[in-house]
UniProtKB/TrEMBL annotation:
InterPro entries linked to this entry: eEF-1beta-like_sf, EF1B_bsu/dsu_GNE, SAM-dependent_MTases_sf, Transl_elong_EF1B/ribsomal_bS6
Residue ranges of every copy of the Translation elongation factor EF1B beta/delta subunit guanine nucleotide exchange domain listed in the record: 192-278
Pfam families to which the protein is assigned, alphabetical: EF1_GNE (PF00736), Methyltransf_24 (PF13578)
Protein name: Translation elongation factor EF1B beta/delta subunit guanine nucleotide exchange domain-containing protein
Family under the similarity heading: Belongs to the EF-1-beta/EF-1-delta family.
Organism of this sequence: Triparma verrucosa
GO MF term (any one): translation elongation factor activity
Transmembrane as UniProt keyword: no
Entries under CDD domains matching the protein: EF1B
Keyword entries, A-Z: Elongation factor, Protein biosynthesis
Keyword Hydrolase included in the entry's annotation: no
Length: 321
């Protein structure tokens, strides 16, 4: 009674969005619907390819196919599934059997593992178009897990989570996601160029000290992982660091730069400027929608998130619908 309507919903979503690379955390009933959608998408796109060759993708003389979409190299569709097969009521072990019987197993890749401990590198470098997380949102480790997997979603891609709207645990999680997103929206990313006095300075050790330095004076910042070294001249390099700064309430990136210069005697100067190339943060400017089945008390809803980075927008193909 949990996913009887969720399977068809995912099927229609995949048929509409045409994702190529999917991830499902927790195999079972929905897996077959997702695999069948991939197979049906392939047949549809092959039919469109034939119509394009015969100049039949038109309506009243207007071409209805997107040249750029069909010109790009389409990777083979795949559904990666992560499941440890240990749940007492699991049906995950039947997925491979049913997929083979339906001749859709060529789209399936099963990872028998605990999603909380699984290395994302096992999925390859390409990001996911759609991630589906089923039945694990009540685990206390779920918020961190969702962040990790949402980071694997491509720009414009989607993540869906089951059972999110009518229980207190999931409501609290959604509220925390909104709070973090709103905090990120108030922050801006800055690049700090830290110049030492001479070429003898160990910039990697300096970086470590700067990152470990306690925040002072109420400054609100989050150091980002990325950093680099850049040649200045005469054998001297400068250290480039990046941080997200909330400049409301009297905080400023200039004050942080001044703080670095005061705390570390090996620093000659610190220049600071906005980093225009930076992403919005962990969450980005995502959109999300909740869908609820009104006749059920449990497993009756899901939330759909779309990752929309800074500057993202849909293409425009025509003046009228």
């Amino acid at each position: 009674m949990g996913c009887e309507n969720m399977g068809p919903m995912l099927y229609q979503l995949i048929r509409f969005l045409k994702p190529r690379k999917l991830l499902e955390i927790g195999a079972g009933y929905t897996s077959i619907f997702m695999l069948q959608a991939l197979a049906d998408n392939e047949r549809e796109l092959q039919a469109w390819e034939k119509m394009r060759k015969s100049k039949e993708c038109t309506c009243e003389g207007v071409d209805w196919s997107v040249d750029d979409y069909f010109a790009q190299e389409r990777t083979p569709p795949v559904l990666d599934i992560v499941d440890n097969m240990e749940h007492e009521a699991t049906t995950a072990h039947l997925v491979m059997e049913v997929a083979k019987a339906l001749n859709i197993d060529q789209y399936l890749k099963v990872h028998v593992a605990d999603a909380y401990d699984y290395e994302s590198s096992n999925f390859g470098e390409a990001p996911f178009d759609l991630v589906w997380l089923d039945g694990i949102s009540t685990d206390e480790r779920f918020p961190a897990l969702f962040k990790d997997y949402f980071a694997l979603v491509r720009d414009g891609g989607y993540a869906a989570v089951h059972s999110t709207l009518t229980n207190n645990l999931s409501k609290a999680w959604l509220a925390s996601v909104n709070a973090e997103r709103n905090e990120e929206a108030r922050c801006e990313t800055f690049r700090f160029e830290v110049k030492p006095w001479d070429g003898e300075c160990d910039l990697l050790k300096l970086e470590d000290k700067i990152r470990k330095a306690e925040k002072s004076g109420g400054l609100n910042l989050t150091w980002l992982e990325k950093s680099s070294l850049e040649e200045v001249g005469f054998g001297i390099q400068k250290l480039l660091l990046y941080a997200r700064v909330n400049e409301s309430g009297g905080n400023s990136a200039d004050a942080i730069a001044e703080m670095i210069g005061e705390l570390f005697e090996e620093v000659q100067s610190v220049d600071v400027a906005p980093d225009e190339s930076a992403s919005v943060g962990i969450w980005g400017q995502f959109n999300y929608f909740g869908f609820q089945e009104p006749h059920k008390t449990r497993q009756n809803s899901f939330s759909l998130f779309q990752k929309r980075p800074k500057g993202f927008s849909e293409p425009t193909f025509s003046w009228t619908p």
